[in-house]
Amino acid sequence: MTSKASALPGENALAFLAGGGELGALMRAKDWSTTPLGLPETWSRSIKTAVSICLNSQFPILLWLGSELRIIYNDAYIPFLGAAKHPAMLGEPGTTAWGEIWPAIASMHDEVQAGRATWVEHYQMFFARKVLHEEVYVTFGYSPILDEDGVGIEGVFCACYETTEEVVRERRLSTLRHLGERSAEHRTVDGACRAAAEVLDGNPLDIPFAAFYLLNEEGSSARRVAAARLNGGSGAFPAIHPIASAVAEGGSWPLGLVAETGQAAEITDLPGRGWQFTMAPWPDLVRTAFVLPLKSSSQQRLAGFLILGVSPRRVLDADYRSFLDLVAGHIATTISDAGALEDEQRRAEALAELDRAKTAFFSSVSHEFRTP
Question: Which fold has domain 167-353?
Answer without folding.
Answer: Beta-Lactamase (3.30.450)
